[in-house]
Protein backbone atom coordinates (compact mmCIF):
# COMPACT_ATOMS: atom_id res chain seq x y z
CA UNK A 1 0.00 0.00 0.00
CA UNK A 2 1.37 3.42 -0.96
CA UNK A 3 2.26 5.81 1.85
CA UNK A 4 1.77 9.57 1.81
CA UNK A 5 4.63 11.63 3.26
CA UNK A 6 3.73 15.20 4.17
CA UNK A 7 5.84 18.29 4.82
CA UNK A 8 7.21 17.68 8.34
CA UNK A 9 7.35 20.20 11.15
CA UNK A 10 11.11 20.28 11.77
CA UNK A 11 11.11 23.09 14.33
CA UNK A 12 8.72 24.40 16.95
CA UNK A 13 8.02 27.60 14.99
CA UNK A 14 7.90 26.12 11.50
CA UNK A 15 4.69 26.71 9.57
CA UNK A 16 6.01 26.04 6.07
CA UNK A 17 9.09 24.51 4.50
CA UNK A 18 11.10 24.87 1.31
CA UNK A 19 12.49 21.83 -0.51
CA UNK A 20 16.12 22.86 -1.00
CA UNK A 21 17.21 19.63 -2.72
CA UNK A 22 15.68 16.31 -3.66
CA UNK A 23 18.20 13.50 -3.14
CA UNK A 24 15.87 10.96 -4.78
CA UNK A 25 13.88 11.16 -7.99
CA UNK A 26 10.63 9.52 -9.08
CA UNK A 27 11.28 5.85 -9.79
CA UNK A 28 14.17 5.51 -7.33
CA UNK A 29 14.12 2.70 -4.77
CA UNK A 30 14.15 4.00 -1.20
CA UNK A 31 15.16 2.26 1.99
CA UNK A 32 14.35 3.21 5.57
CA UNK A 33 16.89 5.72 6.85
CA UNK A 34 17.89 7.10 3.46
CA UNK A 35 17.75 10.87 2.99
CA UNK A 36 14.82 11.87 0.78
CA UNK A 37 15.38 15.60 0.66
CA UNK A 38 16.95 18.60 2.29
CA UNK A 39 14.24 20.87 3.69
CA UNK A 40 14.78 24.50 4.59
CA UNK A 41 12.89 25.61 7.70
CA UNK A 42 12.69 29.03 9.31
CA UNK A 43 15.84 28.12 11.23
CA UNK A 44 18.06 25.82 9.21
CA UNK A 45 18.32 23.43 6.28
CA UNK A 46 17.85 19.87 7.56
CA UNK A 47 18.02 16.39 6.10
CA UNK A 48 14.70 14.51 6.02
CA UNK A 49 14.94 10.73 6.26
CA UNK A 50 12.50 8.16 4.90
CA UNK A 51 10.72 5.97 7.43
CA UNK A 52 9.57 3.52 4.73
CA UNK A 53 10.92 1.15 2.10
CA UNK A 54 9.57 1.34 -1.44
CA UNK A 55 9.73 3.27 -4.70
CA UNK A 56 9.34 7.05 -4.92
CA UNK A 57 6.13 7.30 -6.96
CA UNK A 58 5.38 11.00 -6.76
CA UNK A 59 6.99 14.29 -5.72
CA UNK A 60 4.47 16.87 -4.59
CA UNK A 61 6.77 19.83 -3.96
CA UNK A 62 9.53 20.61 -6.41
CA UNK A 63 12.99 21.97 -5.54
CA UNK A 64 12.84 25.63 -4.54
CA UNK A 65 9.10 25.51 -3.84
CA UNK A 66 7.60 26.19 -0.42
CA UNK A 67 4.51 24.62 1.11
CA UNK A 68 2.72 24.62 4.49
CA UNK A 69 3.40 21.92 7.06
CA UNK A 70 1.36 18.74 6.34
CA UNK A 71 1.19 19.46 2.58
CA UNK A 72 1.75 16.49 0.26
CA UNK A 73 5.52 16.11 -0.04
CA UNK A 74 5.87 12.67 -1.67
CA UNK A 75 4.29 9.26 -2.11
CA UNK A 76 6.22 6.03 -1.58
CA UNK A 77 4.89 2.60 -2.56
CA UNK A 78 5.37 -0.29 -4.95
CA UNK A 79 6.55 0.20 -8.51
CA UNK A 80 3.58 0.76 -10.83
CA UNK A 81 1.09 1.16 -7.99
CA UNK A 82 -2.00 3.24 -8.74
CA UNK A 83 -1.85 6.39 -6.59
CA UNK A 84 -4.59 8.39 -8.31
CA UNK A 85 -6.81 8.18 -5.22
CA UNK A 86 -4.05 9.54 -3.02
CA UNK A 87 -3.35 12.41 -5.41
CA UNK A 88 -7.01 13.36 -5.34
CA UNK A 89 -6.96 13.58 -1.57
CA UNK A 90 -7.85 10.03 -0.53
CA UNK A 91 -4.76 9.38 1.57
CA UNK A 92 -5.58 7.90 4.97
CA UNK A 93 -4.55 10.37 7.60
CA UNK A 94 -2.90 7.77 9.82
CA UNK A 95 -0.44 6.75 7.09
CA UNK A 96 1.72 9.82 7.65
CA UNK A 97 3.47 8.14 10.62
CA UNK A 98 6.88 9.66 10.01
CA UNK A 99 5.41 13.13 10.01
CA UNK A 100 3.83 12.47 13.40
CA UNK A 101 7.18 11.41 14.77
CA UNK A 102 9.05 14.40 13.36
CA UNK A 103 6.48 16.80 14.72
CA UNK A 104 6.72 15.14 18.13
CA UNK A 105 10.46 15.77 18.29
CA UNK A 106 9.96 19.52 18.03
CA UNK A 107 9.03 21.19 21.33
CA UNK A 108 5.35 22.01 21.05
CA UNK A 109 3.99 25.50 21.53
CA UNK A 110 2.51 25.56 25.03
CA UNK A 111 0.81 27.84 27.46
CA UNK A 112 2.61 28.56 30.71
CA UNK A 113 1.60 30.19 33.95
CA UNK A 114 4.99 31.90 34.24
CA UNK A 115 5.84 34.48 31.59
CA UNK A 116 8.66 33.25 29.36
CA UNK A 117 11.34 35.91 28.68
CA UNK A 118 12.37 36.68 25.12
CA UNK A 119 14.89 34.22 23.73
CA UNK A 120 14.05 31.48 26.25
CA UNK A 121 12.80 28.14 24.92
CA UNK A 122 11.12 25.42 26.95
CA UNK A 123 11.92 21.92 25.63
CA UNK A 124 9.38 19.26 26.54
CA UNK A 125 9.58 15.49 26.66
CA UNK A 126 9.02 14.54 23.00
CA UNK A 127 6.69 11.81 21.73
CA UNK A 128 9.18 9.66 19.82
CA UNK A 129 6.79 6.82 18.96
CA UNK A 130 3.07 6.50 18.36
CA UNK A 131 2.51 4.58 21.61
CA UNK A 132 4.87 6.57 23.84
CA UNK A 133 3.26 8.15 26.90
CA UNK A 134 6.33 8.59 29.11
CA UNK A 135 10.05 8.77 28.42
CA UNK A 136 13.20 8.07 30.41
CA UNK A 137 16.35 10.13 29.99
CA UNK A 138 19.04 7.51 29.44
CA UNK A 139 21.92 10.00 29.00
CA UNK A 140 22.36 13.76 28.97
CA UNK A 141 24.98 14.78 26.41
CA UNK A 142 24.89 18.40 27.56
CA UNK A 143 25.06 19.84 31.08
CA UNK A 144 23.70 23.04 32.58
CA UNK A 145 25.84 25.94 31.37
CA UNK A 146 26.80 24.30 28.07
CA UNK A 147 26.27 26.15 24.81
CA UNK A 148 23.80 24.32 22.56
CA UNK A 149 23.51 24.76 18.80
CA UNK A 150 20.65 23.72 16.53
CA UNK A 151 21.13 20.06 15.62
CA UNK A 152 23.23 19.24 18.69
CA UNK A 153 22.20 16.05 20.49
CA UNK A 154 20.75 17.06 23.86
CA UNK A 155 20.03 13.64 25.29
CA UNK A 156 19.31 9.99 24.62
CA UNK A 157 15.71 9.20 25.52
CA UNK A 158 14.42 5.71 26.21
CA UNK A 159 10.91 5.10 24.88
CA UNK A 160 8.75 2.00 25.13
CA UNK A 161 10.43 0.72 21.96
CA UNK A 162 14.00 1.96 21.71
CA UNK A 163 16.60 4.42 22.92
CA UNK A 164 16.73 7.38 20.54
CA UNK A 165 18.82 10.53 20.17
CA UNK A 166 16.97 13.81 20.74
CA UNK A 167 18.30 16.83 18.85
CA UNK A 168 17.91 20.46 19.84
CA UNK A 169 15.82 22.61 17.52
CA UNK A 170 17.05 25.79 19.21
CA UNK A 171 20.35 27.48 20.01
CA UNK A 172 21.31 28.93 23.39
CA UNK A 173 22.70 28.01 26.78
CA UNK A 174 21.30 25.02 28.66
CA UNK A 175 19.83 26.81 31.70
CA UNK A 176 17.84 24.05 33.36
CA UNK A 177 17.41 20.26 33.23
CA UNK A 178 13.98 19.07 34.29
CA UNK A 179 14.53 15.31 34.18
CA UNK A 180 17.85 13.92 35.34
CA UNK A 181 19.49 10.79 33.91
CA UNK A 182 17.39 7.77 34.83
CA UNK A 183 14.37 9.93 35.53
CA UNK A 184 11.02 9.29 33.85
CA UNK A 185 8.41 11.88 32.90
CA UNK A 186 5.20 12.00 30.81
CA UNK A 187 5.25 13.31 27.26
CA UNK A 188 5.05 17.14 27.06
CA UNK A 189 6.39 17.76 30.57
CA UNK A 190 9.38 20.06 30.96
CA UNK A 191 12.63 18.44 29.87
CA UNK A 192 14.98 21.40 29.66
CA UNK A 193 15.15 25.19 29.24
CA UNK A 194 17.41 26.97 26.76
CA UNK A 195 18.12 30.68 26.53
CA UNK A 196 20.66 33.47 26.94
CA UNK A 197 23.37 32.77 29.52
CA UNK A 198 22.52 34.09 32.98
CA UNK A 199 18.75 34.23 32.47
CA UNK A 200 16.75 33.46 35.62
CA UNK A 201 14.35 30.63 34.73
CA UNK A 202 13.47 29.47 38.25
CA UNK A 203 9.89 30.73 37.93
CA UNK A 204 9.44 28.88 34.63
CA UNK A 205 10.93 25.68 36.04
CA UNK A 206 8.56 25.85 39.02
CA UNK A 207 5.34 26.96 37.34
CA UNK A 208 5.61 25.61 33.81
CA UNK A 209 2.41 23.97 32.61
CA UNK A 210 0.92 22.50 29.45
CA UNK A 211 -2.45 23.98 28.54
CA UNK A 212 -2.45 26.18 31.66
CA UNK A 213 -2.35 23.38 34.26
CA UNK A 214 0.13 23.67 37.09
CA UNK A 215 3.00 21.21 37.03
CA UNK A 216 4.19 21.40 40.62
CA UNK A 217 3.61 17.67 41.38
CA UNK A 218 5.73 16.73 38.35
CA UNK A 219 8.53 18.96 39.61
CA UNK A 220 8.51 17.02 42.88
CA UNK A 221 8.54 13.76 40.95
CA UNK A 222 11.58 14.92 38.98
CA UNK A 223 13.32 15.94 42.20
CA UNK A 224 12.72 12.49 43.66
CA UNK A 225 14.14 10.79 40.59
CA UNK A 226 17.14 13.13 40.73
CA UNK A 227 17.92 12.11 44.29
CA UNK A 228 17.62 8.45 43.40
CA UNK A 229 19.95 8.84 40.45
CA UNK A 230 22.50 10.77 42.53
CA UNK A 231 22.61 7.97 45.06
CA UNK A 232 23.08 5.26 42.44
CA UNK A 233 25.76 7.22 40.61
CA UNK A 234 28.03 7.06 43.64
CA UNK A 235 28.31 3.32 43.07
CA UNK A 236 29.20 3.48 39.38
CA UNK A 237 32.28 4.56 37.41
CA UNK A 238 32.01 8.22 36.41
CA UNK A 239 33.85 7.99 33.12
CA UNK A 240 31.29 6.24 30.93
CA UNK A 241 30.59 9.43 29.01
CA UNK A 242 34.14 9.35 27.68
CA UNK A 243 33.29 6.18 25.80
CA UNK A 244 30.32 7.81 24.05
CA UNK A 245 30.51 7.76 20.26
CA UNK A 246 28.80 10.76 18.63
CA UNK A 247 27.26 9.84 15.28
CA UNK A 248 24.14 10.68 13.32
CA UNK A 249 21.46 7.94 13.12
CA UNK A 250 22.09 7.53 9.40
CA UNK A 251 25.85 7.20 9.96
CA UNK A 252 25.19 4.49 12.55
CA UNK A 253 22.93 2.59 10.16
CA UNK A 254 25.45 2.72 7.30
CA UNK A 255 28.25 1.64 9.65
CA UNK A 256 26.14 -1.28 10.85
CA UNK A 257 25.36 -2.35 7.29
CA UNK A 258 29.05 -2.18 6.30
CA UNK A 259 30.35 -3.73 9.52
CA UNK A 260 32.39 -0.63 10.40
CA UNK A 261 33.48 -0.01 13.99
CA UNK A 262 32.48 3.60 14.66
CA UNK A 263 35.18 3.96 17.32
CA UNK A 264 37.71 3.87 14.47
CA UNK A 265 36.00 6.60 12.41
CA UNK A 266 37.06 10.22 12.79
CA UNK A 267 34.08 12.57 12.76
CA UNK A 268 34.08 15.78 10.79
CA UNK A 269 30.92 17.21 12.33
CA UNK A 270 30.47 19.44 15.31
CA UNK A 271 32.33 18.24 18.41
CA UNK A 272 33.71 15.36 16.35
CA UNK A 273 30.27 13.97 15.47
CA UNK A 274 30.44 11.25 12.81
CA UNK A 275 28.39 11.98 9.69
CA UNK A 276 27.21 9.91 6.74
CA UNK A 277 30.14 11.02 4.56
CA UNK A 278 32.65 10.11 7.29
CA UNK A 279 31.43 6.51 7.28
CA UNK A 280 31.19 6.27 3.49
CA UNK A 281 34.75 7.59 3.08
CA UNK A 282 36.22 5.52 5.92
CA UNK A 283 39.12 3.21 5.07
CA UNK A 284 39.77 0.42 7.65
CA UNK A 285 43.19 0.47 9.26
CA UNK A 286 45.03 -1.28 12.05
CA UNK A 287 43.25 0.61 14.80
CA UNK A 288 42.05 -2.34 16.81
CA UNK A 289 44.01 -1.52 19.98
CA UNK A 290 41.95 1.52 21.06
CA UNK A 291 38.71 -0.29 20.31
CA UNK A 292 39.81 -3.21 22.47
CA UNK A 293 40.59 -0.81 25.33
CA UNK A 294 37.07 0.63 25.15
CA UNK A 295 35.48 -2.80 25.26
CA UNK A 296 37.51 -3.86 28.25
CA UNK A 297 36.65 -0.65 30.10
CA UNK A 298 32.97 -1.29 29.55
CA UNK A 299 33.12 -4.93 30.58
CA UNK A 300 34.93 -4.36 33.87
CA UNK A 301 31.91 -3.07 35.88
CA UNK A 302 29.70 -5.89 34.59
CA UNK A 303 32.21 -8.46 35.83
CA UNK A 304 32.08 -7.17 39.41
CA UNK A 305 30.22 -9.47 41.82
CA UNK A 306 28.45 -8.54 45.03
CA UNK A 307 29.96 -10.24 48.10
CA UNK A 308 27.28 -11.85 50.28
CA UNK A 309 28.51 -13.39 53.57
CA UNK A 310 27.19 -16.87 54.32
CA UNK A 311 24.03 -16.93 56.38
CA UNK A 312 22.99 -13.36 55.57
CA UNK A 313 19.91 -12.38 53.59
CA UNK A 314 20.53 -10.21 50.54
CA UNK A 315 18.18 -8.58 48.08
CA UNK A 316 18.93 -6.40 45.08
CA UNK A 317 16.53 -3.84 43.68
CA UNK A 318 16.79 -3.15 39.94
CA UNK A 319 14.97 -0.12 38.59
CA UNK A 320 12.45 -0.99 35.90
CA UNK A 321 13.37 0.32 32.46
CA UNK A 322 10.74 2.11 30.42
CA UNK A 323 10.59 -0.92 28.12
CA UNK A 324 9.97 -3.27 31.05
CA UNK A 325 7.17 -1.04 32.37
CA UNK A 326 5.44 -0.97 28.99
CA UNK A 327 5.81 -4.74 28.55
CA UNK A 328 4.20 -5.29 31.95
CA UNK A 329 1.37 -2.88 31.22
CA UNK A 330 0.52 -4.19 27.76
CA UNK A 331 0.73 -7.88 28.56
CA UNK A 332 -1.46 -7.40 31.62
CA UNK A 333 -3.98 -5.48 29.53
CA UNK A 334 -3.93 -8.20 26.88
CA UNK A 335 -4.35 -11.08 29.30
CA UNK A 336 -7.10 -9.42 31.33
CA UNK A 337 -9.10 -7.92 28.44
CA UNK A 338 -8.84 -10.64 25.77
CA UNK A 339 -10.27 -14.08 26.64
CA UNK A 340 -7.31 -16.32 25.75
CA UNK A 341 -7.43 -19.96 24.85
CA UNK A 342 -4.66 -22.17 23.45
CA UNK A 343 -4.63 -24.81 20.72
CA UNK A 344 -1.66 -27.20 20.43
CA UNK A 345 -0.60 -29.32 17.48
CA UNK A 346 2.39 -31.60 16.84
CA UNK A 347 4.14 -31.26 13.49
CA UNK A 348 6.42 -33.82 11.82
CA UNK A 349 9.67 -32.08 10.84
CA UNK A 350 11.52 -34.78 8.86
CA UNK A 351 10.67 -33.36 5.42
CA UNK A 352 11.32 -29.81 6.58
CA UNK A 353 14.77 -30.84 7.80
CA UNK A 354 15.61 -32.47 4.46
CA UNK A 355 14.31 -29.47 2.49
CA UNK A 356 16.29 -27.00 4.59
CA UNK A 357 19.52 -28.84 3.86
CA UNK A 358 18.82 -28.65 0.13
CA UNK A 359 17.77 -24.98 0.23
CA UNK A 360 20.91 -23.96 2.10
CA UNK A 361 23.15 -25.51 -0.57
CA UNK A 362 22.26 -22.54 -2.77
CA UNK A 363 25.08 -19.94 -2.56
CA UNK A 364 24.47 -16.99 -0.23
CA UNK A 365 21.31 -18.62 1.14
CA UNK A 366 20.71 -19.25 4.82
CA UNK A 367 17.24 -20.37 5.86
CA UNK A 368 16.33 -21.38 9.42
CA UNK A 369 13.43 -23.48 10.66
CA UNK A 370 11.97 -20.29 12.11
CA UNK A 371 11.99 -18.75 8.61
CA UNK A 372 10.07 -21.77 7.33
CA UNK A 373 7.49 -21.40 10.12
CA UNK A 374 7.09 -17.69 9.29
CA UNK A 375 6.59 -18.45 5.59
CA UNK A 376 4.11 -21.23 6.32
CA UNK A 377 2.21 -18.99 8.76
CA UNK A 378 1.95 -16.19 6.20
CA UNK A 379 0.51 -18.57 3.60
CA UNK A 380 -1.89 -20.10 6.11
CA UNK A 381 -3.10 -16.64 7.15
CA UNK A 382 -4.05 -15.90 3.54
CA UNK A 383 -6.25 -18.99 3.59
CA UNK A 384 -7.70 -18.20 7.03
CA UNK A 385 -8.00 -14.38 7.21
CA UNK A 386 -10.11 -14.48 10.39
CA UNK A 387 -6.92 -15.35 12.29
CA UNK A 388 -5.40 -12.16 10.83
CA UNK A 389 -7.94 -9.93 12.55
CA UNK A 390 -8.42 -7.30 15.24
CA UNK A 391 -11.20 -6.83 17.77
CA UNK A 392 -13.08 -3.54 17.87
CA UNK A 393 -16.06 -2.73 20.04
CA UNK A 394 -18.41 -2.30 17.08
CA UNK A 395 -16.78 -4.63 14.54
CA UNK A 396 -14.04 -7.13 13.72
CA UNK A 397 -11.32 -5.82 11.40
CA UNK A 398 -10.05 -8.44 8.93
CA UNK A 399 -6.57 -7.70 7.58
CA UNK A 400 -6.03 -9.00 4.06
CA UNK A 401 -2.38 -7.97 4.15
CA UNK A 402 -0.01 -10.12 6.23
CA UNK A 403 2.50 -8.34 8.47
CA UNK A 404 4.14 -10.82 10.82
CA UNK A 405 5.78 -9.63 14.01
CA UNK A 406 8.74 -11.70 15.21
CA UNK A 407 9.41 -11.57 18.96
CA UNK A 408 13.08 -10.81 19.69
CA UNK A 409 14.65 -10.98 23.16
CA UNK A 410 16.84 -7.96 23.96
CA UNK A 411 18.75 -6.97 27.07
CA UNK A 412 15.92 -4.93 28.60
CA UNK A 413 13.02 -7.16 27.59
CA UNK A 414 11.25 -8.00 24.38
CA UNK A 415 10.60 -6.17 21.10
CA UNK A 416 8.56 -7.26 18.09
CA UNK A 417 9.95 -6.00 14.76
CA UNK A 418 7.60 -6.51 11.82
CA UNK A 419 8.06 -8.12 8.40
CA UNK A 420 5.63 -6.24 6.18
CA UNK A 421 3.79 -8.17 3.44
CA UNK A 422 5.37 -11.42 4.61
CA UNK A 423 3.21 -13.53 2.31
CA UNK A 424 4.88 -11.89 -0.69
CA UNK A 425 8.40 -12.71 0.49
CA UNK A 426 10.49 -15.75 -0.41
CA UNK A 427 12.15 -17.93 2.23
CA UNK A 428 15.52 -16.31 1.61
CA UNK A 429 14.00 -12.81 1.84
CA UNK A 430 12.34 -13.72 5.12
CA UNK A 431 15.62 -15.11 6.45
CA UNK A 432 17.56 -11.97 5.51
CA UNK A 433 14.83 -9.71 6.87
CA UNK A 434 14.64 -11.48 10.23
CA UNK A 435 18.43 -11.45 10.67
CA UNK A 436 18.57 -7.74 9.87
CA UNK A 437 15.71 -6.80 12.20
CA UNK A 438 16.90 -9.04 15.05
CA UNK A 439 20.45 -7.71 14.80
CA UNK A 440 19.35 -4.09 14.91
CA UNK A 441 16.85 -4.83 17.68
CA UNK A 442 19.62 -6.12 19.93
CA UNK A 443 21.77 -3.07 19.23
CA UNK A 444 18.79 -0.70 19.76
CA UNK A 445 18.89 0.59 16.20
CA UNK A 446 15.32 -0.22 15.17
CA UNK A 447 13.09 2.65 14.13
CA UNK A 448 9.72 2.88 15.89
CA UNK A 449 7.97 2.41 12.52
CA UNK A 450 9.69 -0.99 12.17
CA UNK A 451 7.81 -2.23 15.23
CA UNK A 452 4.35 -1.10 14.17
CA UNK A 453 1.56 -2.61 12.12
CA UNK A 454 1.83 -6.34 12.85
CA UNK A 455 -1.26 -8.44 12.13
CA UNK A 456 0.06 -11.71 13.61
CA UNK A 457 2.97 -12.58 15.90
CA UNK A 458 5.37 -15.52 16.23
CA UNK A 459 7.44 -16.30 19.32
CA UNK A 460 10.10 -19.03 19.11
CA UNK A 461 11.86 -20.47 22.18
CA UNK A 462 12.94 -23.67 20.44
CA UNK A 463 16.59 -22.56 20.39
CA UNK A 464 16.52 -22.65 24.20
CA UNK A 465 15.30 -26.24 24.29
CA UNK A 466 11.72 -25.31 25.27
CA UNK A 467 9.46 -27.93 23.73
CA UNK A 468 6.08 -26.30 24.38
CA UNK A 469 4.80 -23.01 25.82
CA UNK A 470 1.90 -20.56 25.62
CA UNK A 471 2.31 -16.87 24.80
CA UNK A 472 0.22 -13.82 25.63
CA UNK A 473 -1.36 -12.20 22.56
CA UNK A 474 0.41 -9.14 21.21
CA UNK A 475 -2.59 -6.84 20.83
CA UNK A 476 -4.17 -5.57 18.67
CA UNK A 477 -3.42 -8.96 17.02
CA UNK A 478 -5.96 -11.71 17.62
CA UNK A 479 -3.43 -14.56 17.81
CA UNK A 480 0.18 -15.45 18.54
CA UNK A 481 2.01 -18.64 17.57
CA UNK A 482 4.44 -20.23 20.04
CA UNK A 483 7.12 -22.41 18.43
CA UNK A 484 8.93 -25.12 20.40
CA UNK A 485 12.12 -27.09 19.84
CA UNK A 486 12.47 -29.93 17.33
CA UNK A 487 12.64 -33.18 19.29
CA UNK A 488 13.88 -36.56 18.09
CA UNK A 489 11.66 -39.31 19.50
CA UNK A 490 9.80 -42.54 18.65
CA UNK A 491 6.82 -41.94 16.36
CA UNK A 492 4.33 -44.24 14.64
CA UNK A 493 4.47 -44.33 10.83
CA UNK A 494 2.45 -46.81 8.78
CA UNK A 495 1.83 -48.87 11.90
CA UNK A 496 5.55 -49.08 12.77
CA UNK A 497 7.46 -47.35 15.57
CA UNK A 498 10.36 -45.41 14.05
CA UNK A 499 12.60 -42.53 15.05
CA UNK A 500 11.18 -39.20 13.92
CA UNK A 501 11.52 -35.48 14.53
CA UNK A 502 8.57 -33.44 15.74
CA UNK A 503 7.83 -29.89 16.86
CA UNK A 504 5.02 -28.53 19.02
CA UNK A 505 3.10 -25.43 17.93
CA UNK A 506 0.75 -23.60 20.30
CA UNK A 507 -1.70 -20.98 19.03
CA UNK A 508 -3.07 -18.49 21.58
CA UNK A 509 -6.33 -17.01 20.30
CA UNK A 510 -8.61 -14.16 21.32
CA UNK A 511 -12.01 -15.84 21.66
CA UNK A 512 -13.77 -12.58 20.80
CA UNK A 513 -12.55 -12.85 17.20
CA UNK A 514 -11.46 -16.47 16.71
CA UNK A 515 -13.62 -19.50 17.48
CA UNK A 516 -12.01 -22.82 18.35
CA UNK A 517 -12.85 -24.46 15.03
CA UNK A 518 -11.38 -21.51 13.10
CA UNK A 519 -8.14 -21.72 15.05
CA UNK A 520 -7.98 -25.49 14.58
CA UNK A 521 -8.44 -25.19 10.81
CA UNK A 522 -5.62 -22.66 10.65
CA UNK A 523 -3.28 -25.01 12.53
CA UNK A 524 -4.18 -27.88 10.20
CA UNK A 525 -3.25 -25.76 7.16
CA UNK A 526 -0.06 -24.59 8.86
CA UNK A 527 0.86 -28.19 9.64
CA UNK A 528 0.38 -29.21 6.00
CA UNK A 529 2.68 -26.45 4.75
CA UNK A 530 5.45 -27.24 7.24
CA UNK A 531 5.28 -31.00 6.76
CA UNK A 532 5.35 -30.57 2.97
CA UNK A 533 7.72 -27.63 2.34
CA UNK A 534 7.50 -28.03 -1.44
CA UNK A 535 3.92 -26.69 -1.22
CA UNK A 536 5.30 -23.36 0.04
CA UNK A 537 7.14 -22.92 -3.25
CA UNK A 538 4.02 -23.13 -5.38
From TrEMBL:
<protein>
    <recommendedName>
        <fullName>Dihydrolipoamide acetyltransferase component of pyruvate dehydrogenase complex</fullName>
        <ecNumber>2.3.1.-</ecNumber>
    </recommendedName>
</protein>
<dbReference type="Pfam" id="PF00198">
    <property type="entry name" value="2-oxoacid_dh"/>
</dbReference>
<dbReference type="InterPro" id="IPR023213">
    <property type="entry name" value="CAT-like_dom_sf"/>
</dbReference>
<dbReference type="InterPro" id="IPR036625">
    <property type="entry name" value="E3-bd_dom_sf"/>
</dbReference>
<keyword id="KW-0450">Lipoyl</keyword>
<dbReference type="InterPro" id="IPR004167">
    <property type="entry name" value="PSBD"/>
</dbReference>
<feature type="domain" description="Lipoyl-binding">
    <location>
        <begin position="120"/>
        <end position="195"/>
    </location>
</feature>
<feature type="domain" description="Lipoyl-binding">
    <location>
        <begin position="2"/>
        <end position="77"/>
    </location>
</feature>
<feature type="compositionally biased region" description="Low complexity">
    <location>
        <begin position="224"/>
        <end position="235"/>
    </location>
</feature>
<dbReference type="InterPro" id="IPR045257">
    <property type="entry name" value="E2/Pdx1"/>
</dbReference>
<dbReference type="InterPro" id="IPR011053">
    <property type="entry name" value="Single_hybrid_motif"/>
</dbReference>
<feature type="domain" description="Peripheral subunit-binding (PSBD)">
    <location>
        <begin position="246"/>
        <end position="283"/>
    </location>
</feature>
<dbReference type="InterPro" id="IPR003016">
    <property type="entry name" value="2-oxoA_DH_lipoyl-BS"/>
</dbReference>
<dbReference type="InterPro" id="IPR001078">
    <property type="entry name" value="2-oxoacid_DH_actylTfrase"/>
</dbReference>
<dbReference type="InterPro" id="IPR000089">
    <property type="entry name" value="Biotin_lipoyl"/>
</dbReference>
<comment type="similarity">
    <text>Belongs to the 2-oxoacid dehydrogenase family.</text>
</comment>
<keyword id="KW-0808">Transferase</keyword>
<keyword id="KW-0012">Acyltransferase</keyword>
<dbReference type="Pfam" id="PF00364">
    <property type="entry name" value="Biotin_lipoyl"/>
</dbReference>
<feature type="region of interest" description="Disordered">
    <location>
        <begin position="216"/>
        <end position="242"/>
    </location>
</feature>
<dbReference type="Pfam" id="PF02817">
    <property type="entry name" value="E3_binding"/>
</dbReference>
Amino acid sequence: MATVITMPRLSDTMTEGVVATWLKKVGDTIKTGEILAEIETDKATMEFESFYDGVLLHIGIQEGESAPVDSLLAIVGKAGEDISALLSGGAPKEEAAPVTEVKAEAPAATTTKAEIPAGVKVVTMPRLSDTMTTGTVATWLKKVGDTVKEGDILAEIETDKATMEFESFNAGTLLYIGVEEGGTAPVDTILAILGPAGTDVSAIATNYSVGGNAEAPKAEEVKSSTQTETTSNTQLPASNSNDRIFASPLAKKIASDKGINLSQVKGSGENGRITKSDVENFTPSTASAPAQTVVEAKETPAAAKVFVPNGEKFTEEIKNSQMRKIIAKRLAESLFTAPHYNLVIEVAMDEAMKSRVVINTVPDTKVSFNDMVIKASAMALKKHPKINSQWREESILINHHVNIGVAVAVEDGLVVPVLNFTDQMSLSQIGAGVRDLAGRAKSKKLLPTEMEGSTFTISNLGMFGITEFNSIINQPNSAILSVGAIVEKPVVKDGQIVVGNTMMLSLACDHRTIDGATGAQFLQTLKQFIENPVTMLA
